[in-house]
Amino acid sequence: MLSMIARRLATAIPTIFIIVVISFLIIKLAPGSPFESQTQLDAEQIANLEAAYNLDKPILVQFWLYLSGLLQGDLGQSFVFRDRTVSEIIAQGFPVSAAIGLTTMVVGTVVGVCLGLIAALRKNTLVDYGVMSMTMAGIAVPTFVTAPLLALFFGLTLGLLPISGWVAGDVRHMILPVLALAIPKAGIIARITRGGMLDVLKANHVRTARSKGLPERLVIWRHTLRAGLMPVVSYLGPAIAGVMTGSVVIEQIFGLPGIGRSFIEGAMNRDYPVVMGITILYATLIIFMNLLVDIAYRFLDPRAEQSS
Length: 308
Known about the structure:
Elements: H1 2-29, H2 43-52, H3 59-71, H4 86-121, H5 126-140, H6 143-157, H7 172-201, H8 204-211, H9 216-228, H10 230-244, H11 248-253, H12 259-268, H13 272-300, H14 303-307
Helix pairs in contact: 1-13, 4-5, 4-7, 4-10, 4-13, 5-7, 6-7, 7-9, 7-10, 8-9, 10-13, 12-13
């Protein structure tokens, strides 16, 4: 186990470095200056600002300066919000995105696994068809349609829930965003769970357990559940990282101050340090969550330890 973790961490360093290089080059190849949109500035002021942020230097020098700061934990200064660092922007928005994202994945996973199990155990019945049709509808309808409908019904029509803004500690502000995000996640997890369980239910050891007269609930609990959920674990790694770094559409619709919203605003305003900082955070979370998936695999299937 420890050797596997060490190998994953060793490969994480060059992976993040490559992501930093590619992201930096893509951003720098974009035409224009981040200060051109500020019409109140003349050419001399723009030139002074570019010199202050080292944008007048060769691209290799700019990359070296950025990398040097990054190695010291400095993500740079925002070009738009000049009194705030990128770290401060992420520190302010990430708790909101993380709270929404983690709650979404908990709700989506619990509901999805339950629906997937029901469908797998009632294969080719009306229950199976009904559950799969419902989950497919949840996947097919995009969140930019679901979210306004939820806000219209529960917020404006019934007046039960707030439809915009964020108050820390107030669960009511989380319900609609979490519900809008959890519907497609639950549908995907349900279909993955159903497929994984159906594959395991065909295995020889399951047929043997049933032939020995073992009760069905024990067959499911002891012999199929862990193996059947392994595809779900694989999906959860990048999915959790994705929702934790913010859903742009949901954050815009419900007015949430998360980092997904900051990322879009940074891209629109050519705020390169903000875009780079959130990209690096997302890449780091992906690597970390995949490491947790590998560790979970070792507990779900001890044979994975021997094959790695």
